[in-house]
């Protein structure tokens, strides 16, 4: 059974803290993605990676960075959390061709106080 | 750039009635199209996808969608709604050679007993 796991389901942090969200997939997928989901806005792509140590900006990369040191793991980093980064964060992975679907993790609901 | 339009953020349907969720895309080349479902407190799960084979695509849980190039549409239907269909539904599009998905803003489906 294919699986994408995220390190936390719920997370509460304070403004200015550095936040790490971890995502692991066990499907040997080349591509990994980080999205944020907000009511009425759908899913917006933050960053994605198509190979180890490779990354590309998505639609809303400001305030975020990513790290992919191993194929199975993709980390999202909030360098200095702000209240407007309170959101649901979803990680996904896919094989390297565009007709392949993305598989999603359960999400991390982050609250920044 | 490709984009997706889903009208009507909230859709109410009576149990046993037809479910119809509309999706229109913009793309200058033939796209790949996806419908995902998100149940409460879960990640997204693939319902079905169109990858240039048959224009009528059947998915899980009795859902199907028809690709109409002339109308740039990929509407999702189910003949008879069940209470378990209450969820949020997202249409997404990608292009050949591009691993990124562009998502619509989603339809929250409420099933009325």
Task: Give me a quick take on this structure.
The complex is a heterodimer of chains A (113) and B (113). Chain A has 113 residues and is an all-beta fold.
Distance between the termini of chain B: 41 Å
Number of helices of chain B: 0
Q: Outline the biggest β-sheet of chain A.
A: 7 strands, mixed
Largest interface: A-B, 26 and 25 residues
What string, H for helix and E for strand, traces the elements of chain A in order? EEEEEEEEEEE
Strand content of chain B: over 45%
Shape of chain A: globular
Structural class determined from secondary elements of chain A: mainly beta
Alpha carbon gyration radius of chain A = 13 Å
Q: Which consecutive residue ranges of chain A, at least 5 long each, have pLDDT under 50?
A: none
Strand content of chain A: over 45%
Shape of chain B: globular
Main sheet overview of chain B: 6 strands, mixed
Describe the structure.
The complex is a heterodimer of chains A (113) and B (113). Chain A has 113 residues and is mostly beta strands. Chain A is built from no helices and eleven strands. Chain A has strands spanning 4-6, 10-13, 19-25, 31-38, 42-49, 56-57, 64-70, 73-78, 87-94, 103-104, 108-112. In chain A, the strands form two sheets. In chain A, strands 2, 4, 5, 6, 9, 10 and 11 form a seven-stranded mixed β-sheet that branches. In chain A, strands 1-3-8-7 form a four-stranded antiparallel β-sheet, with no helix packed on it. Chain A is globular. With 113 residues, chain B is an all-beta fold. Helix content of chain B is 0%, strand content 53%. Chain B is built from no helices and twelve strands. Chain B has strands at 3-5, 10-14, 19-21, 24-26, 31-38, 44-50, 56-58, 64-68, 73-78, 87-95, 102-103, 107-112. In chain B, strands 2, 5, 6, 10, 11 and 12 form a six-stranded mixed β-sheet that branches. Chain B has a four-stranded antiparallel β-sheet with strand order 3-9-8-7, with no helix packed on it. A two-stranded antiparallel ribbon of chain B has the order 1-4. In chain B, a hairpin with a 5-residue loop joins strand 7 and strand 8 (64-68). Chain B is globular and about 45 Å long. The mean pLDDT of chain B is 91.
């Amino acid at each position: 059974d294919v699986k994408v796991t995220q390190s936390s389901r719920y997370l509460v942090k304070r403004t200015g803290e550095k936040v790490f969200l971890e995502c692991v997939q066990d499907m040997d997928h080349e591509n990994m993605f980080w999205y944020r989901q907000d009511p009425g806005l759908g899913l917006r792509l933050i960053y994605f990676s198509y190979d180890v140590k490779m990354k590309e900006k998505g639609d809303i990369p400001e305030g975020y960075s990513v790290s992919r040191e191993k194929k199975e793991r993709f980390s999202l980093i909030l360098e200095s959390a702000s209240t407007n980064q309170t959101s649901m964060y979803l990680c996904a992975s896919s094989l390297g061709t565009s007709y392949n679907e993305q598989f999603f993790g359960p999400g991390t609901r982050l609250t920044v106080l | 750039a490709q984009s997706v339009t889903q009208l009507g953020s909230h859709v109410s349907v009576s149990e046993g009635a037809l479910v119809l969720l509309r999706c229109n895309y913009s793309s200058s080349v033939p796209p790949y199209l996806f419908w995902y479902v998100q149940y409460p407190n879960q990640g997204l799960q693939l319902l079905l996808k169109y990858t240039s084979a048959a224009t009528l695509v059947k998915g899980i849980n009795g859902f199907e969608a028809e690709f109409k190039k002339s109308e740039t549409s990929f509407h999702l239907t189910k003949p008879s709604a069940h209470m378990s269909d209450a969820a949020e539904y997202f249409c997404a599009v990608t292009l050949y050679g591009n691993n990124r998905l562009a998502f619509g803003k989603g339809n929250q489906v409420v099933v009325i007993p």
